[in-house]
User: Which sequence fits this backbone?
């Protein structure tokens, strides 16, 4: 079972304020433990939404909306992807996640990812499964 731990953005992260060295140290220690346990798949921080964009779809038309995006509480500042044997194991790892922004209220969100086998049999899913960059 794969899970994504999403770190919610704050006004500081959206302003591009870098966390203190102590936060980088705590995150590194946590991710080293994940790697040692063999559950770490990927992890990274995201640049502020001012450097990003959204693609809006409306009845077959696409438009690009440049950041920044106003509602900081809905934005993601970073993520960690893990592979756990159960929801409970993933929850235990999430509870060990270092507090991302200790000087202000913040949260992380954990979501289980769909596995290709859960999407049902179809020609499109089989084509997707054969893509070389897709981890299973």
Assistant:
């Amino acid at each position: 079972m794969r899970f994504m731990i999403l770190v919610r953005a704050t006004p500081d992260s959206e302003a591009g304020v870098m966390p203190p060295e102590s936060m980088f140290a705590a995150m590194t220690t946590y991710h080293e433990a994940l790697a040692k346990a063999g559950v770490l798949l990927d992890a990274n921080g995201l640049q502020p939404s001012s450097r990003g964009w959204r693609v809006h779809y409306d009845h077959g038309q696409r438009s690009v909306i440049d950041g920044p995006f106003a509602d900081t509480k809905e934005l993601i500042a970073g993520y960690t992807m893990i592979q756990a044997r159960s929801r409970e194991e993933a929850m235990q790892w999430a509870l060990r996640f270092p507090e991302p922004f200790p000087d202000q209220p913040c949260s992380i969100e954990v979501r289980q990812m769909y596995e290709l086998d859960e999407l049902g049999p179809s020609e499109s899913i089989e084509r997707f499964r054969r893509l070389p960059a897709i981890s299973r």
User: Anything to note?
Assistant: The chain has a mean pLDDT of 92. The CA atoms of residues 98 and 107 lie 11 Å apart. The radius of gyration is 17 Å. The first helix runs from residue 11 to 14.
